[in-house]
Design brief:
about 200 residues; Tumour Suppressor Smad4; 6-stranded antiparallel β-sheet; 21 strands
């Protein structure tokens, strides 16, 4: 399970475990993590957590959000990333792989994989990825990242990191999720991939 540690000037102010799917950060009292400072927007940012993957999104804040010194709008968080908002810093930390495995929900088993993503070009051309997880990340962290989410009705693709939007069939994704169809071609981080329903 992941957590964030809020500090200012090297002093720890608050520690919070990311137990919710959406953890909001901002100056207003209704946020999950309240930072009472005028340099922080009322609704500054949100961290979206699905199982043990977390994504940071800046909510069009006035002064912006940085991760490891770089301005971001959306970012796939990794262990020990430092999120900065004005003079405040948030350290993002996750448990070890062994602890994460033990903490994964066991309320429903993952069914037989029925869709795949195949790399079409580059050094990994021909590599096939079975979409067995509820959430699968694709792309290159720090450059361009998207998530494939498994839903009861099918699969959806959401762009989460990178100034240039991920493309599907040469069309850039807009905000929100897009339902994937058989033979859709995804263009992300300079690599093309094909989504396919797996035949029995």
């Amino acid at each position: 399970m992941a957590k964030i540690i809020l500090t200012k000037g090297g002093t720890v102010i608050q520690e919070m475990t990311l137990t919710k799917e959406r953890t909001t950060i901002g100056r207003r009292a209704h946020n999950d993590l309240v930072i009472d400072n005028l340099a922080i927007s009322g609704e500054h940012a949100v961290i979206i957590t699905i199982y043990n993957d977390s994504f940071l999104e800046d909510l069009n804040s006035t002064n912006g959000t940085q991760v490891n010194g770089h301005p971001v709008t959306k970012h796939f968080l990794q262990h020990n990333d430092v999120i900065q908002m004005a003079r405040y810093k948030l350290l993002y930390q996750v448990d070890t792989d062994e602890e994460i495995k033990d903490n994964r929900p066991k309320m429903f088993p993952v069914p037989r994989p029925d869709a795949t993503i195949t790399v079409l070009d580059g050094p990994s051309a021909g590599k096939e990825m079975l979409l067995t997880k509820v959430l699968t990340t694709i792309g290159r962290p720090g450059i361009q990242v998207a998530i494939v989410t498994r839903r009861p009705h099918g699969y959806e693709l959401t762009h989460v990191e990178g100034q240039t939007y991920t493309k599907v069939n040469d069309t850039p994704l807009s905000a929100g999720a897009r339902a994937l169809k058989d033979e859709d071609v995804i263009d992300i981080a300079g690599t093309q991939m094909k989504f396919s329903w797996k035949t029995v």
